[in-house]
């Protein structure tokens, strides 16, 4: 097991900055900077882009892990942009936030050494 890095802490804070307003918006109907579905979609898009920037080059490679991360990023950003355009509530916002959380969790598991390295992915 490897130790988590500052980059992992930063990604955790970014994801929390999206998830906490999403929960508050879901419960109360509004949060600071989030008054409608478009605002929540904007927060999610910024969070997804920032998380990808923090995760760095490991999200863009040729292995199975990297392909899964790219797929999650496309789903997360795609549903976020669709929610921004369509102004829907749960239908598109929930997959956006769920994709961001799954991407973050996989990155933490990878950094902690619980996800098989690229060369062992075919044998696992």
Q: Can you offer a commentary on this structure?
A:
- This protein is an all-alpha fold.
- It has one domain.
- The chain contains four helices and no strands.
- The chain has helices at 6-28, 37-55, 64-86, 90-112.
- α1 (6-28) packs antiparallel against α2, α1 (6-28) runs antiparallel to α4 and α3 (64-86) runs antiparallel to α4.
Rg (C-alpha, Å): 15 Å
Helix content: over 70%
Number of DSSP E strands: 0
User: Major sheet: size, sense and barrel closure?
Assistant: none
For the record, give the distance between the C-alpha atoms at the N and C termini, rounded to a whole number: 17 Å
SS-based class: mainly alpha
Write the H/E string, N to C: HHHH
The backbone outline, from C-alpha atoms, is globular
SS strand fraction: under 5%
Task: Pick out its properties.
single chain; 124 residues; mainly alpha; 4 helices
Task: Give the helix/strand layout.
Layout: H1 6-28, H2 37-55, H3 64-86, H4 90-112
Helix pairs in contact: 1-2, 1-4, 2-3, 2-4, 3-4
Give the gist of this structure.
The chain has 124 residues and is an all-alpha fold. It has four helices and no strands.
């Amino acid at each position: 097991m490897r130790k988590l890095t500052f980059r992992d802490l930063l990604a955790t804070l970014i994801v929390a900055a999206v998830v906490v307003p999403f929960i508050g918006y879901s419960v109360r109907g509004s949060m600071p900077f989030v008054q409608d579905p478009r605002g929540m979609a904007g927060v999610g898009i910024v969070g997804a882009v920032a998380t990808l920037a923090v995760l760095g080059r490991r999200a863009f490679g040729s292995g199975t892990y990297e392909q899964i991360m790219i797929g999650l990023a496309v789903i997360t950003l795609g549903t976020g942009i669709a929610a921004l355009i369509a102004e829907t509530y749960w239908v598109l916002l929930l997959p956006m936030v769920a994709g961001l959380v799954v991407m973050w969790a996989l990155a933490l598991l990878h950094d902690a050494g619980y996800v098989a390295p690229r060369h062992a992915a075919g044998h696992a």
